[in-house]
Design brief:
With 278 residues, the chain is an alpha/beta fold. The chain folds into two domains: 2-168, HUPs (Rossmann fold, 3-Layer(aba) Sandwich), CATH 3.40.50.620; 181-273, Pantoate--beta-alanine Ligase, Chain: A,domain 2, CATH 3.30.1300. The chain has twelve helices and eight strands. The strands form two sheets. The chain has a five-stranded parallel beta sheet with strand order 3-2-1-4-5, with helices on both faces. Strands 6-7-8 form a three-stranded antiparallel beta sheet, covered by helices on one side. Strand 1, helix 2 (25-37) and strand 2 (40-45) form a beta-alpha-beta unit. Helix 11 (196-209) packs antiparallel against helix 12 (216-225). The protein is globular, with a radius of gyration of 19 Å.
Length: 278
């Protein structure tokens, strides 16, 4: 990190793009925004076992796509100045586990956290370490992981990290599916089946803009009935607090957040909802 000390000494701004690798166009958009905003761009590549089931002792962690050489080449092409790709031992010591964790409480126990206990504690712990190691002026995260963005904003606020958290809009394929590293594990049929998720979310967005009842229960049933798909959750929440929004007709902006299982993969997505005439 000597290069970062040199950059700070000259007053250069530093942007951090944390990733788990298996990079795609969504990550490229994070790098592009960081490149536009900062003098120096750092990208991390680290598949963090703490945020997986059983602290990484699971198929999801073992099967997570890893392509370090390809990722480093992409990041270099996109204009990243420094790539930080630590091992588990370098991040957490010889045991591979920290003694102290960042606990996210209720904010990390709902929605995604209800289905993946401890996930956001693992996310918050590794992100706090990255913030301390890199000491960026800004950090960039994809809006696709809306709950993660909200948790990390609260982390930065509560622990007084002196940086700006920047959420970058979702990048979607031509078929509407949100870009995700896990998409690599979808078969052609799985991907086709998964399109029910963005279609349902876009329906909610259209209904909210037109001042119509959201009819969330009907869309839950539609997703759950789709071939090869199992619904985990579909909820309307406040974008900052993640608390449920109870009204069927919106009176203030909100988020529709959802997760499904399709084939061997769990996918998440979300859209912003706005009341009519907002």
């Amino acid at each position: 990190m000597n290069a970062l000390d040199s950059a700070r000494s000259t007053g250069s701004s530093i942007g951090l793009v944390p990733t788990m690798g298996a990079l795609h166009t969504g990550h490229a958009s994070l790098v592009a925004q960081a490149r536009e905003d900062n003098d120096v761009v750092v990208a991390s590549i680290f598949v963090n076992p703490l945020q997986f089931e059983a602290l990484g002792d699971c198929d999801d962690y073992r099967n997570y796509p890893r392509q370090l050489d390809v990722d480093v080449e992409l990041l270099t092409t996109e204009g990243v100045d420094i790539v930080f790709a630590p091992t588990v031992e370098e991040m957490y010591g010889p045991t591979g586990l920290p003694m102290l964790w960042v606990r996210t409480g209720q904010m990390g126990e709902q929605l995604e956290g209800a289905s993946r206990p401890g996930h956001f504690d693992g996310v918050a712990t590794v992100v706090a370490k990255l913030f301390n190691l890199v000491r960026p002026d800004r950090a960039y995260f994809g809006q696709k992981d809306a709950q993660q963005v909200a948790v990390i904003r609260r982390l930065a606020s509560d622990l007084d990290f002196p940086l700006e958290i920047c959420a970058v809009p979702i990048i979607r394929g031509v078929d509407g599916l949100a870009e995700s590293s896990r998409n690599q594990r979808l078969s052609v049929q799985d991907r086709s089946n998964a399109l029910v998720l963005p279609q349902a979310l876009m329906t909610l967005q259209e209904r909210s803009i037109n001042g119509l009842a959201l009819e969330v229960a009907d869309l839950r049933a539609l997703i759950d009935a789709a071939p090869g798909v199992r619904l985990d959750h579909l909820e309307i929440v406040d974008a900052t607090t993640l608390q449920p929004v109870s009204t069927e007709i919106l009176t203030a902006p909100a988020l529709a957040v959802a997760a499904i299982h399709v084939g061997p993969v769990r996918l998440i997505d979300n859209v912003e909802l706005f009341p009519a005439n907002f």
